[in-house]
Write a structure and sequence with these properties.
406 residues, mainly beta, Immunoglobulin-like, four-stranded antiparallel beta sheet, four-stranded mixed beta sheet, 5 helices, 34% strand
Length: 406
């Protein structure tokens, strides 16, 4: 059984008339049956009369108003062709079984067995940081056998419970007294900790004294010069050869976020895709022999943009894959993508995901766990893109992406 969500109508002010109008429009369209579940359409006296459910008598009419007398249609409730509405089934749903929790890096996937009673509405999901059911809080519902809890951080543990709720709004018992636990930072419930390369996890004899000095690991070039020292620094003489040109690694490291640039040559005018062939790629760079400047190939579609060598300029954009407007009653979602550019060249792929922070500001505040603070905490770090569904937006919401480096 689906339930249409009708937006609340905010109190009108001098600055929110547009939001009030949209909310009123949504309510009217649901009650007129234009959108949403047909069961939520409004019923008129004429509908009752036409359906032979009631008889109506106009008692008074005039001046644009009047009054109506309503009585049951003949036979209703007395066995004469109608009959009273059936009593709702108030039987509590059965206890769920088979609850499992599988942890990922920053998400927990829950699953349970299929229900076996007839008037099932949905399954409630409850969560607590302790294994005490009295401390659990409601975090969401599901009309399937699965639920994804976007925790948003690694290394945290939670306990989960589920219970069924019927179409008569009767809740059944929880699946158990003790919760089912999961800890993020795992893949398929396998802890990644033992796989981290550290001294305790190295096999005996895997690293010999000839490979490691007393301070740590040295990586040296063929001539014996240090490329990466045990202190994490890059040797001053270390370089890469790119198209016959020596590129000093220490200079690149000093620039921090360095886009994956590919120098394609010098031209008197901007080279075309036909001229470059397979070198026509994002962040390709050429030097213009006429004005002496460098240009980078970036954007969508790809085009040449002046590459600023003096100073550092960052630009952050947010793109939506499916528009910016959701209609009431539609099962719609979109993917918001953050794209970071440095000096005109895109550096999204080489930027740590931990630098991206997402924020939501709703026009109409909601109570926890659907409030902005809870949503913002889930996407505070680690996401270059986020999925937004109808459930993420109540009336109207604005989403922001920030770059937070440390």
């Amino acid at each position: 059984m689906s339930v249409t969500r009708v937006p609340a109508i905010p109190a009108p002010t001098d600055t929110n008339l547009r939001e009030v109008t949209r909310a009123l429009k949504g309510v009217v369209e649901v009650r007129e049956g234009l959108i949403g579940d047909p069961l939520d359409k409004g019923v008129t006296f004429r509908d009752l009369v036409d359906g032979k459910i009631a008889e109506a008598t106009v008692v008074a009419r005039g001046g644009g108003s009047g009054s109506i007398g309503i009585s049951p249609a003949p036979g209703l409730g007395s066995g004469g062709g109608g009959g009273a509405a059936p009593e709702p089934d108030l039987t509590p749903p059965p206890q769920p079984a088979g609850l499992t929790a599988s942890a990922g890096l920053a998400v927990v996937i829950l699953s349970w067995n299929q229900w076996s009673y007839g008037n099932h509405a949905y399954t409630e999901i409850w969560r607590s940081s302790t294994n005490v059911i009295g401390n659990a809080v409601f975090i969401g519902s599901s009309d399937s056998q699965f639920y994804s809890d976007a925790v948003g951080q690694t290394g945290v543990s939670f306990y989960y419970w589920v219970r069924f709720r019927s179409q008569a709004d009767v809740a059944g018992p929880y699946n158990a007294t003790l919760g089912v636990s999961a800890t993020t930072g795992k893949i398929g419930n396998v802890d990644l900790g033992p796989l981290i390369v550290e001294a305790a996890n190295l096999a005996n004899g895997a690293v010999t004294s000839g490979k490691v000095d007393s301070r740590g690991l040295d990586i040296k070039a063929a001539d014996g010069s240090v490329v990466f020292g045990p202190n994490g620094f890059i040797g001053n003489s270390a370089y890469l050869v790119v198209d016959g040109n020596n590129v000093n690694l220490s200079a690149l490291a000093a620039a921090q976020l360095v886009p994956n640039l590919n120098f394609v040559g010098a031209f008197s005018s901007a080279p075309t895709q036909g001229q470059l062939g397979n070198k026509w790629l994002q962040n390709a760079v050429y030097r213009n022999t006429t004005d002496g400047y460098l240009y980078v190939l970036t954007g969508s579609p790809l085009g040449w943009v002046l590459y600023l060598e003096d100073g550092v300029s960052f630009v952050l954009t947010v793109e939506s894959t499916n528009g910016t407007t959701f209609r009431v009653g539609q099962n719609t979602s979109t993917l918001l993508k953050g794209r970071l550019f440095k000096n005109g060249a895109e550096v999204t792929d080489v930027t740590p995901a931990g630098w991206f922070r997402w924020r939501r500001v709703s026009a109409i505040p909601q109570a926890a766990p659907n409030d902005d603070a809870t949503w913002n905490a889930s996407y505070q770090t680690g996401y270059k893109q986020v999925s937004i569904s109808v459930d993420s937006v109540y009336a109207r919401a604005t989403f922001f992406c920030d770059i937070i480096s440390s």
